[in-house]
Design goal:
This protein has 21 helices and 7 strands. By secondary structure, it is of the alpha/beta class. The chain has 4 domains: about 130 residues, P-loop containing nucleotide triphosphate hydrolases (Rossmann fold); about 70 residues, Helicase, Ruva Protein, domain 3; about 90 residues, Zinc Finger, Delta Prime, domain 3; about 70 residues, no CATH class. The strands form 2 sheets. A 5-stranded parallel β-sheet has the order 2-3-4-1-5, with helices on both faces. A two-stranded parallel ribbon has the order 6-7. Helix 6 links the parallel strand 3 and strand 4. Helix 9 crosses helix 12, helix 11 packs across helix 12 and helix 16 packs parallel to helix 18. The radius of gyration is 27 Å and the shape is globular.
Length: about 425
């Protein structure tokens, strides 16, 4: 490999937004981060996104561009004492930027220790998290930070990163490599820039001196010999949880419990696993078995109370239940269709009969006029219009082909006849 022991991904870390690839919604001309740097004043930020998409890099670029004293801590191996040490140093110098990687792993006391310094402007906080900050960051700290969502890098971004490295890295230039096939490099990286560049370096270093041609076969062979089993801080973190979710979606409890065991062996946060099962219970099972969401939600609460090692049993019970449950993505598809329609049609007016009429003026404007109270009619149903006029008869919810939703379809057909095509 290169004479330097610094990995390629670190050697290629950009120092300015001009060199940064991806996250155009944040770093492009006139966008939030470009404007922040241009203003010369940093604000406390939480970067939320998957591994290897630029969270750490953007924090460093902000500090470098604004010439701010910069400290970095990892929530995995830092505690309240480390936070206080940084705050004391920042107080002596007047101000500093503190970057905390994986801030979601800080407990409440550790997050509380940041509040005073952030409020007083002693530190500007930039936190990086792969988890939804609404769940993992205390509300007092969350309210003092702007949340920016970072997205997985697409194929164009990943190829641009490799091209940039081949043009700028001295060691790579010397190798005179040729990439004949991209698929394996891109698939194994999973949208993670750090993973892609370090895999590229590994592959190039492993190829014969006189044959630096990269193909899918060479990448697969080299990668299979070197990729770690599980790393909850990156690498296969998202590959394993993806396999776990897809096994349950595919109704294979055996595969689901295997991938669950892999995550447990790797020390994965059980709340992370439970939270993913709550999402699956709605997205992939939904009204085919409404009890799935109840059990998944209860699982999360139980896992919080019990913790390892016993919570592995609760996780296993829930995973096998979800895997063996009938499946339907009808609710998921319904909200997707409805949101697409809202984007296309904008703010259509609410029909007058179903508007709220809390004031006399609103009643005079016919708000609520003609509304029929369903419970006043036989079967607690009366045919009336609830959609805006432009969308009358538009179906969004398409019940799945399972016992529970077949019953739902029959009920809707009985009520609405041919209106929605049920």
């Amino acid at each position: 490999m290169a004479n330097s022991h610094i990995p390629l991904a670190e050697r290629m870390r950009p120092n300015s937004l001009d060199e940064f690839i991806g996250q155009e919604h944040l770093v492009g001309k006139g966008k939030a981060l470009e404007q922040m740097i241009k203003s010369g004043k940093a604000h406390s930020i939480l970067f939320w996104g998957p591994p290897g998409v630029g969270k750490t890099t953007l924090a460093q670029i902000i500090a470098h561009s604004l010439n701010i004293q910069f400290f970095t801590l990892s929530a995995i191996d830092s505690g309240v004492k480390d936070v206080r040490t940084v705050i004391d140093m920042a107080r002596k110098s007047g101000h500093a930027l503190l970057f905390i990687d994986e801030i979601h792993r800080f407990n409440k006391a550790q997050q509380d220790s940041l509040l005073g310094a952030v409020e007083k402007g002693i530190i500007t906080l930039i936190g990086a998290t792969t988890e939804n900050p609404s769940f993992e960051v205390i509300s007092a700290l969350l309210s003092r930070c702007q949340v920016f969502i970072l997205h997985a890098l697409n194929e164009e971004h990943l190829k641009a990163l490799v091209a940039q490295a081949m043009q700028k890295d001295k060691w790579l230039i010397e190798q005179q490599i040729k990439i004949e096939e991209w698929e394996a490099l891109l698939q194994l990286s999973g949208g993670d820039a750090r993973k892609l560049l370090n895999l590229l370096e590994l592959v190039v270093a492993s190829l014969p001196i006189d044959n630096k041609i990269i193909t899918n076969a060479t990448v697969q062979e080299i990668a299979q010999n070197r990729i770690a089993l599980y790393d909850k801080t990156g690498e296969q973190h998202y590959d394993i949880i993806s396999a776990f979710i897809k096994s349950m979606r595919g109704s294979d409890p055996n595969a689901a419990v295997y991938w669950l065991a892999r995550m447990i062996a790797g020390g994965e946060d059980p709340k992370f696993i439970a939270r993913r099962m709550i999402i699956l219970a709605s997205e992939d099972i939904g009204n085919a078995n409404p009890n799935a969401l109840l059990l998944a939600t209860t699982c999360f609460t139980a896992v919080e109370m019990i913790g390892y090692p016993e919570c592995r049993i609760i996780l296993s019970q829930t995973a096998t239940y979800l895997a063996t449950s009938p499946k339907s993505n009808a609710a998921y598809m319904a909200i997707n269709k409805a949101q697409e329609m809202v984007t296309k049609t904008g703010d259509l007016p609410v029909p007058l009969p179903i508007r709220n009429a809390p004031t006399g003026l609103m009643k005079n404007l016919d708000y609520g006029l003609g509304y029929k109270y369903a419970h006043d009619y036989p079967g607690n149903f009366v045919n009336q219009e609830f959609l805006p006029e432009a969308l009358i008869g538009t179906p969004f919810y398409e019940p799945g082909n399972n016992t529970a939703e077949i019953r739902a379809r029959d009920y809707l057909k009985h009520c609405w006849k041919e209106k929605y095509g049920y």
